[in-house]
Design a protein that fits this description.
The structure holds 3 protein chains of 3 kinds. Chain A is mostly helical. Chain A has helices at about 1-25, 30-35, 45-55, 65-95, 100-110, 115-130, 135-160, 165-170, 175-190, 190-205, 210-215, 220-230, 240-260, 260-275. Chain A has 2 domains: about 1-45, no CATH class; about 65-225 and about 250-275, Orthogonal Bundle (MetI-like fold). Chain B is flat, with a radius of gyration of 25 Å. The mean pLDDT of chain B is about 90. The chains are: A mainly alpha, B mainly alpha, C alpha+beta. Chains in contact: A-B, A-C, B-C. Chains A and B meet through helix 1, helix 4, helix 5, helix 6 and helix 7 of A and helix 1, helix 2, helix 4, helix 5 and helix 6 of B.
């Protein structure tokens, strides 16, 4: 009974993945004839190749690979910058409180609840003023800004849980703000950095909204390009290619999810419990 | 001697202050400044470019007489209520199942949670395909011999929002399950022992003892789901792009359309301000209940 | 007295809460001073102020004749040992000992030399390449002391260094710290809530309460001539017995009896009025000694706590409980009559209104 329920529920969760995989391995004639749940009679990898290298968005027909590389170029600096900034912020908030620091932090946390829509346009203006609108650098900045509340909270709580006496001992030993950060705190905080990296890699890779608004077609991240390929109204719908493209886009976070396992759970739980 | 004097308070802790500049700028310029700017400009007649030509509440009057906005609000309300109730109950139900000391817990948890790793775009496209009337569930059931079977939510304006709901639940319930499971694991084993000794049935223990004890977890989950609902955008864009017609429009999409597609900034600002107001209406009572009276740390 | 640390009119407040109020304290060079008090009395706060880990609200701190009130902790010539040891977990023992020297820009040869010397003093040479988590509690605390030792500082600050250790190890390390003080001759300020540590280690004890020093004196004086009722109750276990009565001249009368306190050393000219008379359990006499004591009280045994070395007895004296410490060899049962006695030179008289010593 217990296991029966669990199995039925598991089916609901597994079905879409299964359907995507089998569809992406079928040829179009087979899709038109059969039903989407039947396994492929003739396995073909052609849809995957096509999705990666030939699928069209508008006039460009170089496949999802362009979006993939754009996403990689967005992802790496965004993850590094957002975590670097937030970890230092969290450290300052936990160990070097100054007048007003808690106020700014409170604003930051409340800001996490403000709908992005009210801040989208002002950010357009800011990015335009500093010459980063439509550029990858601009999107990196946006990810750093919107990743800040949750990451700062994560790091602040982690650093605050490190015994204060350790920090005091380091000050007696003559280490300053950066000395303590790099020599004492960083080496002790590997797990939380891994959690933050998982959180940011999946979050930034999966982003669609900021990609649509702050980049141009040739710098679109993978999610945006995927949507444009699948939902383009021109041409014949190639469902197998679409599903291959969808799977390709989901592959990076899925791999991270299956590899990191418990840490992923810890990351979202940490992110969720106080966010 | 220099150290004998109290240093100027500005220079005290200087490194920490410099290091906090990004946080301070984000908090003040983007979060406070940006929000205030948008609210201010929602009272202007800005179209292609933001202009400070005030028109009072005109944008709001137009907003509330636009059918597209009303549909968006209605959709969000339906999606919101259903999503809240179903995500909470399914999330708790799954967590309670996994908490019964079953074998293969890790496998089931992995299965329930993996959709959460996927983006809304991927989720939307996957379910768009499964719900496709010509190839998906409807076609499969018909081919099994039940010719009159109809299940085509994505092309039926009356139920399209439920088609999106199915996908949303698939993506988001895993997260709530994980949070609920953590909450259940936080409950003292002795509570279960005590109810066993007292002879209270399991279902009753859950309702009368466990759920009340998990109040903070439920509140966290509630806030989480609620803030996710208001952001609902990517899923709709990918799954239906607001269609058929405008049947599955949502506020977030309305804002983006007016701001960046229809070049009617004032409308977009007014709509986003309404989103902000609704968040405040939800959050303020919650914050008051949670933190009211108590000093925040 | 060659003053090494001088604290002048120190105030510290967090918002509206005053943690330290107008606190003055002089510590002599080479002195072992213990700050003693229950939790929340401000003793650790004071130590953190001296270390420069907390910014004071008002007042001054001088160390070695230098005003260091706003100096960085590392520039104050202090070393500090913490309750949780606070060893850097990712560094070896050697790394822990040398971290401060590296920050101070000391040359490599000198670091090696000083670390070796400190390790020798503390007998932790075989541990130098280990990480803190591979050490026992006692070893960790030795390393923590070593970290202060290598820095060649004049002043050592200890913040409840033995509280995380079990009783046996605590007694051992207590002896070691005392030994270390005798060898090095540094000024040491030691915070604890444990009165045995305070009594055994200190040259002088400062008893603190509510951010103020209630009494600053030698352990002997603190024990024998507590300045007020709080100090009298805080030191000694079981706690001092009190009789609530009135004093007129040297005549004390209370419900348990009237007697003379002739022979008591008054701190000032005695004043008549409501008075508390305190007598420590170990100063209460029984048997033959009670019969010849200056004050004699009939009593009934109520409860017996044998400790082996001695026996604690709770007696009922006309409706009041009085604790007495008896020789461990005397057989005694509850319900037995036990006449008690004491001499006035060992009593403590406190004004009932001010609670100060008379």
């Amino acid at each position: 009974m217990l296991y029966g329920t669990l199995l039925v529920v598991s089916l609901y969760y597994l079905l879409p993945l299964y359907v995507m995989v089998v569809t992406s391995l079928k040829g179009m004639p087979e899709i038109r004839l059969g039903n989407i749940f039947s396994p492929p009679v003739e396995v073909t990898l052609e849809p995957w190749v096509k999705a990666w290298a030939e699928a069209c968005t508008g006039i460009n027909c170089d496949g999802l690979s362009r979006g993939f590389w754009n996403s990689v170029q967005i992802l790496i600096p965004s993850v590094i910058l957002s975590i670097a900034v937030a970890s230092v912020n969290g450290y300052a908030l936990a160990n070097w409180k100054f007048r007003g620091s808690e106020l700014f932090f409170t604003i930051l946390i409340i800001g996490a609840f403000i709908p992005y829509q009210t801040m989208l346009y002002p950010l357009v203006i800011i990015l335009r003023e500093i010459g980063l609108m439509g550029k990858l650098g601009g999107l990196v900045l946006v990810h750093t800004v919107f990743g800040m509340p949750i990451l700062t909270l994560l790091f602040r709580n982690y650093f605050a849980a490190i015994p204060e006496e350790l920090f005091k001992a380091a000050r007696i030993d003559g280490a300053g703000f950066w000395g303590i950060y790099f020599r004492i705190m960083l080496p002790m905080s590997l797990p939380i950095f891994v959690v933050a990296i998982i959180l940011q890699v999946t979050g930034i890779w999966n982003d669609f909204l900021f990609g649509v608004i702050y980049t141009k077609p040739d710098t679109y991240p993978m999610t945006v390009q995927l949507n444009n390929i699948v939902n383009s109204v021109q041409g014949i719908k190639e469902y197998n290619v679409n599903m291959a493209a969808t799977l390709l886009t989901g592959l990076v976070p899925l791999i991270i999810y299956f590899v990191s396992g418990k840490l992923f759970v810890r990351g979202i739980a940490a992110g969720a419990v106080k966010g | 001697m220099e150290s004998a004097r109290k240093p100027l308070s500005v220079f005290k802790n200087l490194s920490a202050k410099i290091a906090s500049v990004p946080m301070i700028l984000t908090a003040l310029v983007v979060f406070v400044g940006g929000t205030a700017w948008t609210v201010l400009h929602s009272f202007t007649g800005s179209r292609l470019l933001p202009k400070l030509k005030f028109v009072g509440f005109d944008q709001y009057e137009r907003l509330w007489s636009t059918r597209r906005w009303l549909v968006s609000i209605e959709n969000l309300a339906i999606y919101g209520v259903c999503s809240l109730i179903l995500t909470l109950s399914i999330g708790f139900f799954l967590a309670a199942l996994l908490d019964r000391k079953i074998r293969g817990e890790a496998v089931f948890r992995t299965i329930f949670l993996y959709p959460f790793a996927l983006s809304f775009v991927v989720t939307g496209l996957a379910w768009q395909w499964i719900l496709n009337p010509d190839f998906g569930i409807q076609n499969t059931v018909r081919s099994l011999g039940w010719q009159s079977f109809t299940f085509d939510p994505l092309n039926n304006p009356d139920i399209v929002i439920f088609g999106i709901l199915i996908a949303g639940l698939w993506q988001g319930t895993g997260l709530i399950m994980v949070i609920m499971l953590a909450g259940l694991r936080g409950i003292d084993e002795d509570i279960w022992k005590a109810t066993r000794v007292d002879g209270i049935p399991t279902w009753k223990t859950y309702i009368r003892v466990i759920i009340p004890m998990m109040r903070p977890v439920f509140i966290t989950a509630l806030v989480l789901i609620a803030s996710g609902i208001i952001k609902l955008y990517d899923l709709v864009v990918a799954q239906t792009n607001g269609g058929p017609g405008i049947a599955s429009e949502v506020p977030a999409k309305y804002v983006i359309n007016y701001m960046f597609r229809a070049q009617n900034l004032g409308q977009g600002f007014a709509a986003s301000t309404m989103m902000l107001v609704s968040v405040i209406i939800i959050l303020v009572p919650w914050a008051y209940l949670e933190f009211g009276g108590k000093k925040r740390d | 007295m060659d003053t090494n640390i001088a604290i002048k009119n120190l105030d510290l407040s967090f918002g509206a809460i005053n943690v330290l109020q107008d606190l003055n304290l002089d510590v002599a060079k080479g002195e072992f001073l213990v700050l003693l008090g229950s939790s929340g009395c401000g003793k650790s706060t004071l130590l953190n102020c001296i270390a420069g880990l907390l910014d004071v609200t008002d007042g001054q701190i001088h160390i070695g004749g230098r005003n260091v009130t706003w100096e960085e902790p590392s520039n104050r010539g202090i070393g500090m040992v913490f309750q949780s040891y606070a060893l850097y977990p990712q560094m070896t023992v050697e790394g822990n000992l040398s971290f401060g020297l590296k920050n101070a820009g000391v040359s490599r040869e000198q670091i090696t030399e000083k670390v070796a010397q400190a390790a020798k003093t503390l007998q932790i040479e075989p541990l130098l390449k280990r990480k803190p988590r591979a050490l026992s509690g006692g070893q960790r605390q030795r390393v923590a002391i070593g970290r202060a030792l290598v820095r060649d500082v004049e002043v050592f600050l200890f913040d409840e260094p033995l509280s995380n250790l079990d009783a046996k190890l605590r007694a051992e390390l207590r002896v070691e710290i005392k030994q270390l003080h005798q060898t090095l001759g540094n000024t040491m300020i030691y915070v604890t809530h444990d009165q045995i540590e305070a009594m055994t280690l200190a040259d002088r004890i400062a008893i603190m309460k509510g951010g103020k020093i209630l009494q600053l004196d030698t352990p002997n004086q603190i024990y024998n001539r507590p300045a007020n009722k709080y100090v009298a109750e805080f030191i000694g276990s079981p706690t001092m017995n009190f009789f609530d009565g009135t004093l007129s001249g040297t005549a004390f009368s209370c419900p348990q009896g009237d007697f003379s306190v002739e022979g008591y050393e008054f701190a000032a000219t005695p004043s008549a009025g409501a008075t508390l008379l305190g007598i420590r359990p170990e100063h209460i006499l029984t048997g033959d000694q009670a019969a010849t004591a200056q004050v004699r009280l009939p009593a009934t045994v109520d409860l017996v706590e044998p400790l082996g070395s001695d026996t604690l007895v709770r007696c009922d004296v006309a409706g009041q409980s009085v604790w007495a410490r008896l020789d461990g060899q005397t057989p005694i049962e509850p319900g037995a009559d036990l006449p008690l006695g004491f001499n006035a030179n060992l009593v403590n008289l406190f004004s009932k209104t001010s609670e100060n010593r008379l």
